[in-house]
Amino acid sequence: MARVLGANMYADAFLVAFRLPNTFRRFFGEGAFSAGFVPLFSQRYHGEGGLEEAKKFSEEVLAVFLPVLFAFTLIGQLAMPALVWVLASGYAGDPDKFALTTDLSRIMFPYLMLISLVSLFSGVLNSMHRFAAAAFAPALLNVAMLAALLMFREGGSVTATALAWAVVAGGVVQLGLTWWAARQAGISLKLRRPRMTPGVRQFFRVVIPATFAAGVYQLSILIDTQFVSYLPEGSMAHLNYADRLNQLPLGIIGTALGTAILPTISKFVDQGNPDAANKVQNQALDLAMLLTLPAAIAFAVAGVPLVTALFQGGEFTAQDAIVTGNTLAIIALGLPAYVLVKVLTPGFFAREDTKTPLKIAMVVLVANVLLNFALVPFFGLYGLALALMLTSWLNCA
Q1: Residues linked to residue 316 through DSSP beta bridges, in sequence order
Q2: Which of 21, 50, 131, 391 could be cross-linked to 112 through a Cys-Cys bond (beta carbons 3.0 to 4.6 Å apart)?
Q3: How many Å apart are CA 191 and CA 189, to the nearest integer?
């Protein structure tokens, strides 16, 4: 993507447009949804009702979740110019860039609904300790985007539009895989009439604070995007490419461990065995740091050479590599904290405590905004990266 699309207006427009459904996906779907769904599904699955009770609960949640997602997607399509302005008002000064960002956002916004449904089926699979399909599903999005890049190599708006359609195609394939895997595991969900059953009410009691907690974190990302939209052209792309490398150990280690330990900790908590739950979490912390610290040191010390080797070429210049590499080196100093947070938060969610992460997230949000105002005017993109690094350690602490 760096070599074909580069770090320019078209890359910035695509990445901001992609951030919109991705932000709401994390806000609506993955984090908050898993925090509420997995412990409650696990209670039923390991309880007296077993698989049938867990399946019934899943169908009740799906019946309410699906109309909400559909309505939200429709509203998003109608209000897209306003949403893009809220996300990146700095682009409003360039009508072509703003129009392209709006068009790409409209194409990709249905991905929100698709990937939120993927989160539901992934939650079912993870609760049953079947991790393979849910863990592999995101790779299908990458395959779809790579196919678009190979077929539309000319760059500019043509490649950016092809990538946007590839995101939607990737969401469809991801949903197909996780639906099939859940069916193979014995969970074939049927559509019911939406009803506020006791199970759904319990789900919302847990998920609403978690949604606000996830929303505070995503709001922090939106604020960062606003700051970046006022920086020189290509800044959004530089930040994204740096973050891609930083997300590699975070996804492979932090997110994977957090996903894997949540059902196990939930089970031990439900059984009244906190010592076993703590042992699982401590083992995860040890393993996380064993794998993360070398990656963080490598990124911090050799950010520019790594980015040059991986990305430089085609539309991605040597100057782009230097800016991206330096940004990576700063962000990577917070990588251990990012991973630790992913391993620490399941301990709260397993105990149905979503209020503590919410309070922490609000403190971190305020700190992030203050640091952005203090650092970005003087250091530009590097100041924003420094603010991200410092707030990740605050969040961890």
Answers
A1: 313
A2: 21
A3: 7
- Nearest 5°: CA angle at 77, between 73 and 83? 100
Q: What is the token pair recorded at 13?
A: 């427009």
Question: Please, are residues 19 and 164 in contact by the beta-carbon 8 Å criterion?
Answer: no
At what angle are helices 9-24 and 198-229 packed, to 10 degrees?
160
Q: Which helix (H) or strand (E) holds 87?
A: helix 80-87
The answer, as to whether pTM is greater than 0.85, is: no
**What does each C-alpha distance from 225 to 19, 82, 113, 236, 345 come to in angstroms?**
9, 15, 22, 8, 25
Burial of 71 (0-12, 13-18, 19+ CB in 10 A): exposed
Q: Which two tokens stand for residue 304?
A: 């520019």
Torsion, Cα of 265, 270, 275, 277 (10° steps): 0
Across the chain, which has 397 residues, the per-10-residue mean pLDDT values are: 92 91 67 71 78 82 86 92 91 93 94 86 82 87 95 93 96 94 84 83 76 67 88 93 88 78 80 83 86 92 95 93 96 90 81 80 90 94 94 92
Helix %, strand %, coil % of the chain (to 5):
85, 0, 15
